[in-house]
Structures are given as C-alpha cells and as structure tokens.
Amino acid sequence: MPSNRKITQKVEAFDSNVTKRGNVPPSLVKKGRKHPVGPILLVVFIFVVIGS
Predict the structure, then answer these.
(1) Where, if anywhere, are coiled coils annotated (predicted)?
(2) How far apart are CA 27 and CA 22, in angstroms?
(3) Angle at Cα 26 formed by Cα 22 and Cα 29, nearest 5°?
(4) Which uninterrupted H or E stretch holds 11?
(5) Full-prediction pTM beyond 0.85?
(6) Which pLDDT tens digits describe the chain residue by residue (52 residues)?
(7) Of the candidates 26, 45, 25, the residue with the CA atom closest to the CA atom of residue 35
(8) Cα separation of 14 and 22, whole Å?
(9) Cα separation of 22 and 15, whole Å?
C-alpha cells in the first residue's frame, strides 16, 4: 500500500495542475494548416483521375 505521504504529494500535484488545464501558451498553438501537397501536383493528380 502506498504511504500516506505519497498520496498527499499526488493530491497536491493534482490540485496545482487543475487550474492550469486548457491554458496552452500561444507558442504551442498551431497557426495554420499547411497543405502536404503542392497545388501543381494536386492539379496533375485531378487531371489524371478525371481524365482516365
């Protein structure tokens, strides 16, 4: 069984993190979504699929 001191430490760590949830620093937020495929390659792919 865990000791009483260990449980108290876990409760204190949980209590300190409760107010921090959902607060993400602006540097970690994704600014925009980059397209994995360029526009020219996308046009060629559409041309091949529709053209065939």
Answers:
(1) none
(2) 14
(3) 75
(4) helix 4-18
(5) no
(6) 568 999 999 898 888 877 777 777 777 667 777 778 888 999 999 999 998 7
(7) 45
(8) 14
(9) 15
